[in-house]
Amino acid sequence: MVGAPAVAREPEQESLSARLLRDYDAGAFFFASPRRTMLARGVFATVPDAGGANSLEGLPERVASVLNASREAAHDIPVAVGAVPFDGKVAAQLVVPMTLQRAGPMVFDGAAAARSPLAGQYTLRPVPEPSAFKDGVAAALKLMQEGPLRKVVLSRSLHVDTAAPVDLRQLLHNLARRNPHGYTFAVDLPQHADAAPGAGRRTLIGASPELLVARSGLQVLANPLAGSAARSLDPVEDQARATRLMASPKDLHEHAVVIDAVAEALRPFCKTLDVPAGPSLVSTQTMWHLSSRITGELKDPSITSLTLALAMHPTPAVCGHPTALAHTAIGNIEPFHRGYYTGTVGWCDANGDGQWAVTIRCAEADERTLRLFAGAGIVVGSTPEAELAETEAKFRTMLQAMGLGLEVQP
Model confidence over 348-362: pLDDT tens digits? Predict the structure, then answer.
């Protein structure tokens, strides 16, 4: 069992951000970034579905309409929060909450013994099986050899079935404690249409290392990650892996594809755009990533953070390039629909400001089931064995927070 959840202390000794985390209950919206923490409860208004084949069509306009109507109704919290799916096959889950509390970044004082959010027995079931995932990687590489596809991101899921209800609050605590520089989130989702009567809530929960986009006034920030390597418990080997990642032609190419696409998506909205000449390294407890911080200034203050997010989404970091070809390949190879995995989660206020993180290192949870997700970017030079290993490493963010004791290997 690893990590350290928040310490329960007297309110006057507890940071406001830690108190918001402690006060989270299933059904609420929680979002912690490196700069702020948010806890939203209840539903004042729901952003309606488009009612067509693509739920993302016209989404920023629908959000703006609901926010304007909420403000006209004298609701003093004009902000929409929630999750946007990978594609328009399922509806975006965005609401204007009844209440919203904000605080600074997560602050934890002292340490505490780790607690698992799982009680009793559990089973693990990979979908697809590792051998089938490797077959999918081989199929993607064949497509690249035969046509214009340059990159495709293939994902796996890991189903965890538990004998007792999952303690989502404890899982969220563990994720926030272990990932202080990332984006920890919990979003209430509607139950599946075929769910049994009386089924409990469904929650999207995770700790993403990747900011899709943030807007504050006219200032825009995107921080795409692409190109990864698993961390090691051995400091010498860990640094060697970081050094190899920075020099890897395969990973540098994968990163360049993403950066070019993100810059191309943002450039029409910005009068200035600063794109780094090369990536830097960032790390989580389980992974090294190649990172580029792209900053810009908007031409038009009416462009909202959600408009920017959807212009970029899905980036080649979660789908591939060219987008349409990669999306088709994903649909043909992956044996499940992603839902909200590799979508985006966050918030947008009536002024257009907001933050949207890429929905990775996450799970969809109901009362006794968690469905974890992990993916890997396939480009020329990838191997099925290496991409399988990368997904195994990425699963560890959730598995360690669940207290399963699966450590990164030296």
Answer: 999 999 999 999 999
Q: Helices (DSSP H) in 39-80: which residue ranges?
A: 59-72
Q: Please confirm, yes or no, whether 390 is among the known catalytic residues.
A: no
Exposure letters 344-383 (e unless 16+ CB within 10 A, then b) = bbbbbbbebbbbbbbbbbbbbbbbbbbbbbbbbbbbeebe
Tens digit of pLDDT for each residue in 75-110? 999 999 999 999 999 999 999 999 999 999 998 876
Q: What percent of the chain shows pLDDT beyond 90?
A: 85
Kindly state which CATH superfamily the domain 16-106+123-402 is placed in: Anthranilate synthase (3.60.120.10)
Q: Reduce the DSSP state of residue 202 to 3 states and report it.
A: strand
In terms of residues, how long is the chain? 410
Instruction: Name the β-bridge partners of 40.
Output: 29, 100
Given a contact cutoff of 8 angstroms between Cβ atoms, the answer to whether 20 and 26 are in contact is no
Q: Looking up tokens 């990650």, which residue turns up?
A: 225
Handedness of CA 347, 266, 59, 302 (dihedral sign): positive
Residues 14, 32: Cα–Cα separation, whole Å: 16
**Cβ atoms within 10 A of the Cβ of 247, count?**
9
For 16-33, b/e burial (b = at least 16 CB within 10 A) is ebbbbbbebebebbbbbb
Report d(CA 171, CA 169) in Å as an integer: 5
Domain residue spans of the chain: 16-106+123-402
Could you confirm whether 250 is annotated as catalytic?
no
Kindly state the DSSP code that residue 24 receives in the 8-state scheme. Answer: -
Q: Which of 14, 151, 387, 392 is flagged as catalytic?
A: 151
- The confidence band for 7, taking pLDDT boundaries of 50, 70 and 90, is very low
Q: In terms of pLDDT, which residue wins out, 179 or 192?
A: 179
